[in-house]
């Protein structure tokens, strides 16, 4: 048995190389939230598409209301959505609503509060200047303008703009499809009273959520027993439709290591990475499909996802920023760390009160409740075995980009 450890950076590079760039597809605008735009978006219509009123009131010629009060006959009523409106004759007014087209001949709108609100005749009490309360055509966007650059991450405002310009779909890099598979004959589902030796399955739920949070699509198989035949039977029908097979469990040094047994010598390389938690890892390609095998201990699985899988999925989706934000913080309590391994300790980071980070729980990779109340991973470098309270450390924030 070899004791050589794989460097974190080397395993990371290996995983990153497995999942290729996702293809560009046209998706309905409403489904593009959080995706990366693949081509520039160029305006084919102006915004606004026509001169329209910014106020509920009366379209007038400013010259006709220069001396107030003045009474004008109300000739037309123009709600938003009316398309054919005759021109405004001098000395008259058209009642007009916000967003309705300003008739030719009118050069301003008097808001209703500055009038008596009449419907056949209106008394205007205050003058307006030319252009007042008129939103000019193309004021916001001229035809031919590049309004969104390829590479931008599509958020609500970007999707709103595309919709306003009449786009029904946008070219984006699609979400990677990840088959999340939990192995372990001890795993059962909710609603079952636990027999001694059984546990409720949790890695699958956690990893599928992590895939979705990263922007991917997850299909979840939660209860694959430690049996190579059943493992192959579970994955075989699904391999053709996934971009990544992500397993948990069955990769360590014991007997019944189902994932190791199923994939050894078949394109997946198993190794021990110089990190804690998350030591035992595997990565490769099985029947052409990218495979990453995470260790079964829940904290190990989740930390491995953060370190190796999330950046790979983000890169495949075309994000420029694939890593979580990293801050420098002051440790509130000492920590110890194994020699020769990067330790990722769970922490509670308080960005407000002096950027202090407090280690949460111990280093044990079964301590799921500590993970659930942490918001960062404290990174203790490979060559460091002890850090005193007050030491400056890098913390990898578990929320945001
Ligand atoms: N002799 C050695 N034993 C172990 C070593 C080692 O180097 N030598 N490494 C330890 C480390 S570190 C880890 S991490 C684990 C990894 O083991 P496996 O990947 O084979 O995982 P399992 O044995 O299947 O499970 C480990 C642990 O996690 C629980 N588990 C598994 N799947 C789930 C799930 N879906 N939901 C909730 N909990 C799960 C499982 O019941 C075990 O308790 O190996 C160490 N051993
Ligand atoms: O790597 Mo194991 O992941 O330390 O518990
Ligand atoms: Mg197992």
Write structural notes for this entry:
This protein has 401 residues and is an alpha/beta fold. The chain folds into 4 domains: 8-22 and 175-317, 3-Layer(aba) Sandwich (Molybdenum Cofactor Biosythetic Enzyme, Chain A); 26-46 and 143-172, Molybdopterin biosynthesis moea protein, domain 2, CATH 3.90.105; 52-135, Molybdopterin biosynthesis moeA protein, domain 3; 326-397, MoeA, C-terminal, domain IV (Beta-clip, Beta Barrel), CATH 2.40.340.10. 17% of the residues lie in helices and 30% in strands. It is built from 7 helices and 27 strands. The protein has helices at 8-18, 156-164, 203-214, 228-235, 258-263, 298-316, 368-372; strands at residues 24-28, 41-42, 52-53, 57-60, 70-78, 93-96, 108-111, 121-124, 134-135, 146-148, 169-173, 177-183, 187-188, 199-200, 217-224, 244-248, 268-272, 275-276, 280-286, 289-294, 326-331, 335-336, 342-350, 356-359, 376-380, 386-387, 392-397. It has a 6-stranded mixed sheet with strand order 15-12-16-20-19-17, with helices on both faces. Strands 7-4-6-5-8 form a 5-stranded mixed sheet, with no helix packed on it. Strands 21-24-23-25-27 form a 5-stranded mixed beta barrel. A hairpin with a 2-residue loop joins strand 19 and strand 20 (289-294). The mean pLDDT is 97. It binds ligand LQZAQKY5, molybdate ion (MOO) and magnesium ion. Pathway: Cofactor biosynthesis; molybdopterin biosynthesis. Belongs to the MoeA family. It catalyses: adenylyl-molybdopterin + molybdate = Mo-molybdopterin + AMP + H(+).
């Amino acid at each position: 048995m070899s004791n050589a450890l794989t460097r974190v950076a080397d395993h990371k590079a290996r995983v990153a190389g497995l999942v290729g760039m996702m293809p560009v597809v046209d998706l309905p605008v409403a489904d593009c939230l959080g995706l990366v735009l693949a081509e520039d978006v160029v305006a084919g219509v102006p915004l606004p598409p026509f001169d329209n009123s910014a106020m509920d009131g009366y379209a007038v010629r400013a010259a006709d209301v220069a001396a107030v009060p003045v009474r004008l006959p109300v000739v037309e009523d123009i709600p938003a959505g009316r398309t054919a409106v005759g021109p405004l004759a001098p000395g008259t007014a058209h009642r007009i609503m916000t967003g309705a087209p300003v008739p030719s001949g009118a050069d301003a709108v008097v808001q209703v509060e500055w009038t008596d609100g009449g419907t056949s005749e209106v008394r205007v009490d205050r003058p307006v200047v030319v252009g007042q309360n008129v939103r000019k055509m193309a004021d916001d966007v001229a035809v031919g303008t590049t309004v969104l650059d390829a590479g931008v991450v599509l958020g609500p405002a970007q999707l709103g703009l595309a919709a306003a310009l009449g786009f029904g779909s946008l070219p984006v890099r699609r979400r990677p499809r990840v088959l999340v598979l939990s192995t372990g004959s001890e795993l059962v589902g909710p609603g079952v009273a636990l027999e001694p030796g059984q546990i409720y399955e949790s890695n699958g739920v956690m990893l599928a959520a992590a895939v979705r949070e990263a922007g991917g699509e997850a299909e979840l198989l939660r209860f694959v027993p430690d049996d190579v035949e059943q493992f192959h039977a579970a994955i075989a029908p699904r391999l053709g439709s996934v971009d990544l097979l992500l397993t948990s469990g069955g990769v360590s040094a014991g007997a019944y290591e189902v994932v190791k047994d199923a994939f050894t010598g078949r394109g997946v390389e198993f190794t021990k990475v110089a990190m804690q938690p998350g030591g035992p890892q595997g990565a490769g390609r099985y029947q052409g499909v990218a495979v990453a095998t995470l260790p079964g201990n829940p904290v190990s699985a989740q930390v491995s996802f953060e370190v190796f899988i999330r950046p790979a999925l983000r890169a495949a989706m075309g994000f420029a920023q694939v890593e979580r934000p990293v801050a420098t913080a002051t440790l509130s309590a000492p920590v110890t760390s194994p020699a020769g391994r990067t330790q990722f300790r769970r922490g509670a980071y308080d960005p407000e009160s002096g950027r202090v980070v407090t280690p949460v729980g111990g280093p044990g990779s079964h301590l799921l409740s500590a993970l659930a109340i942490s918001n960062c991973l404290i990174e203790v470098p490979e060559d460091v075995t002890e850090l005193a309270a007050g030491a400056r450390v890098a913390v990898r924030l578990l929320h945001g980009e």
